[in-house]
């Protein structure tokens, strides 16, 4: 690269010092000149602003280290396919970016800097386009899926079954999550984890809790109907997948709809022959939160290696249910030093569980959990799973 | 390089039309690789007829490109003139200045929209959290009273104890609780309806002041009975606090 990385980085630092008005100006410039691009974005641009600055910041910070920067940019390119980004969208974006830089740099914006930024942006756009084109040979930008069953369970949970359209099979590892877009909240993608192992018929079960004030989760629980078409992005994440080298027994701690990926793991262990003992502690506040108990109990009956323990933290009078947090109940039950421990649930529940387990002397590397963010745009965790990996867990 | 050889200024300028079919362009490699055999008497030098033939071909080639280039230039100029006459700006878009005024207006509008959406989300969050808390309290209270009723039954049943009867006591307590909760909610709803009716009446009165007696309003009685029929979109929001 002929551009001086230090100059680029210094100019970017001066621009971002202007804060929120930088992305605001950028998007306004983009849409003023290209109104047709507005429809690629959600109604509220609030979340979008941080993402633009963060992504650009990461690229600029690594501009002198292509080995680090290029994989990130390639991930961006692959991931942007589901936002319907096409090669012809890149020049107007570059134009708006240069206009923004020149606006905020004022007299410091010179021909040298302009040439440097133009070259750097051209490279990024090229790498993103190439990565997108390459990824499209292996998998579509997103899969279309039909809602075949939408079942309200209690006050704020829905169990949704999707039939994923399969021109290309929808494969994932249990524990991974997929971005979902529903027709009433276009351009807003949220991650959900399938509660089942991938199936040949493309059926995916999702557990969704209406988060208070949550735009997408509320729409899914309250207004999604059978026959609605939703979009499903490529599966991502490896925090909650099974370690292929481990044969240890497992402790699974579920909070609310965090049960979904843990249920999928249990199905995977069953498909692998049920050679490991599994203790699944399902926690909730009140009895309504144990929305999937009948299904879990019937699994436990069929699978002698599986123990299901329902627990409630805020329901002193529920019959036949342990009281307390999932983690406290588990710690009362015994020692878990030799187990693989998976925790999934609300961020607070995950944090508490990690703390308690650490206090009980359990090594952090024994514990697997997600980072707790539901950012529809986290390309650093985007990873295409090799087809061979996926075939291994394919339901028989 | 004489453009006057091709004065006709046809609008369509496909190379495929300017060149004969099956024509193979002469490549630099071809020219560089061209070898001439020596003359029969073994003197050093090339056979003049071959050299001449080759030069002739090169000349032809160059002529062809020159004329093609000239036609392209003429076409570009013609198009430039056409766009100028039509007041169409052919400069690349990035060289034009962005209108800062338009951009600032758009940015402000978007920020206001974002704020409204954020406020709506906050409002929805607090309503949902309240509702969930209330529902939880109703359920927990019903359960507590069910257990209390079951306990009371066990105490007073003595020898006549039956597990079925205990369960009936439990369910009856839950039913009483749920009925009480529903009655409470209905009272709240009635209060809300009264508030909506009051707003509807006030609105109707204001409307009468503005446009006279409700001749234009087909069914004034519809307002108290069906408050939402007033079509005031914000009435709903006002009734919650």
What does this molecule look like?
The complex is a heterodimer of chains A (396) and B (241). By secondary structure, chain A is an alpha/beta fold. Chain A folds into three domains: 5-138, Globin-like (Orthogonal Bundle); 143-237 and 377-393, Elongation Factor Tu (Ef-tu), domain 3 (Beta Barrel), CATH 2.40.30.10; 250-368, 3-Layer(aba) Sandwich (Rossmann fold), CATH 3.40.50. Chain A has twelve helices and twelve strands. In chain A, strand 1 and strand 2 (157-164) form a beta hairpin. Chain A is elongated and about 75 Å long. Chain A starts with a helix and ends with a helix. By secondary structure, chain B is mainly α. Chain B folds into two domains: 3-94, no CATH class; 100-238. Chain B has helices at 15-18, 28-33, 48-85, 100-157, 163-211, 222-225, 235-238. Mean pLDDT of chain B is 73; it is low at 1-18 and 216-241. Chains A and B meet through helix 2 and helix 5 of A and helix 4 of B.
* CATH homologous superfamily assignment of the largest domain in chain A: Globins
In terms of quaternary structure, the protein is heterodimer
Helix proportion range of chain B: 55-70%
* Low-confidence spans of chain B: 1-18, 216-241
Largest inter-chain interface? A-B, 33 and 33 residues
Q: How many DSSP E strands of chain A?
A: 12
The low-pLDDT segments of chain A are 374-396
Strand content of chain B: under 5%
What would a concise description of this structure say?
The complex is a heterodimer of chains A (396) and B (241). With 396 residues, chain A is an alpha/beta fold. Chain A contains twelve helices and twelve strands.
């Amino acid at each position: 690269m002929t551009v001086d990385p230090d100059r680029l980085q210094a100019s970017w630092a001066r621009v971002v010092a202007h804060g929120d008005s930088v992305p605001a100006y950028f998007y306004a410039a983009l849409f003023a000149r290209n109104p047709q691009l507005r429809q690629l974005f959600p109604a509220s641009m609030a979340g979008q602003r941080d993402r633009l600055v963060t992504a650009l910041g990461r690229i600029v910070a690594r501009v002198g280290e292509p080995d680090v920067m290029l994989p990130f940019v390639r991930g961006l390119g692959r991931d942007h396919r589901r936002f319907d980004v096409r090669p012809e969208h890149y020049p107007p974006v570059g134009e708006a970016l240069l206009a923004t830089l020149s606006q905020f740099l004022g007299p410091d914006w010179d021909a040298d800097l302009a040439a440097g930024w133009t070259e750097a942006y051209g490279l990024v756009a090229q790498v993103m386009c190439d990565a997108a084109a390459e990824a499209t040979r292996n998998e579509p930008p997103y899969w279309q899926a039909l809602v075949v069953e939408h079942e309200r369970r209690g006050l704020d949970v829905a169990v949704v079954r999707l039939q994923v359209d399969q021109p290309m099979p929808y494969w994932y590892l249990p524990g991974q999550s997929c971005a979902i877009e529903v027709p009433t909240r276009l351009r807003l993608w949220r991650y959900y984890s399938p509660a089942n192992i991938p199936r040949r018929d493309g059926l995916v079960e999702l557990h969704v809790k209406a988060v208070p004030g949550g735009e997408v989760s509320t729409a899914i629980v309250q207004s999604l109907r059978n026959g609605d078409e939703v979009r499903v992005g490529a599966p991502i994440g490896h925090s909650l997948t099974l370690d292929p080298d481990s044969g240890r027994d497992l402790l699974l701690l579920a909070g609310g709809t965090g049960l979904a990926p843990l249920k999928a793991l249990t199905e995977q262990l069953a498909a692998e022959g049920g050679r490991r003992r599994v203790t699944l502690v399902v926690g909730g506040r009140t009895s309504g939160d144990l929305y999937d108990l009948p299904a879990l109990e019937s699994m436990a009956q069929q699978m002698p290696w599986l123990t299901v323990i329902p627990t409630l933290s805020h329901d002193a009078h529920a019959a036949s249910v342990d009281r307390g947090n999932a983690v406290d109940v588990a710690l009362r039950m015994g020692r878990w030093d030799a187990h693989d421990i998976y925790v999934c649930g609300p961020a607070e529940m995950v944090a508490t569980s990690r703390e308690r387990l650490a206090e009980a002397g359990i090594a952090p590397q024994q514990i697997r959990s997600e980072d707790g963010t539901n950012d529809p745009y986290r390309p650093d965790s985007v990873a295409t799973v090799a087809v061979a990996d996926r075939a291994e867990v394919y339901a028989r | 390089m004489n453009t006057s050889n091709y004065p006709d200024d046809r609008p369509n300028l496909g190379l495929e039309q300017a060149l004969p079919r099956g024509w193979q362009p002469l490549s630099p490699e071809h020219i560089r690789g061209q070898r001439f055999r020596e003359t029969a008497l073994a003197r050093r030098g090339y056979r003049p007829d071959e050299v001449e033939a080759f030069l002739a071909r090169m000349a032809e080639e160059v002529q062809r490109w020159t004329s093609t280039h000239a036609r392209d230039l003429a076409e570009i100029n013609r198009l430039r003139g056409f766009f100028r006459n039509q007041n169409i700006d052919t400069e690349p878009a990035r060289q034009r200045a962005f209108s800062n005024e338009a951009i600032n207006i758009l940015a402000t509008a978007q920020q206001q929209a974002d704020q409204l959406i954020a406020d709506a989300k906050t409002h929805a969050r607090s309503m949902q959290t309240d509702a969930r808390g209330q529902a939880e309290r109703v359920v927990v209270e019903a359960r507590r009273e069910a257990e209390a009723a079951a306990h009371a039954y066990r105490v007073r049943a003595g020898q006549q104890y039956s597990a079925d009867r205990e369960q009936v006591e439990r369910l009856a307590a839950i039913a009483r609780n749920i009925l009480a909760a529903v009655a409470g909610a209905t009272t709240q709803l009635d209060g809300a309806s009264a508030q909506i009716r009051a707003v509807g009446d006030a609105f109707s009165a204001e409307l009468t002041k503005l446009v006279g007696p409700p001749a234009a309003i087909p069914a004034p009685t519809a307002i108290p009975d069906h408050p939402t029929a007033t079509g005031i979109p914000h009435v709903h929001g006002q009734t919650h606090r």
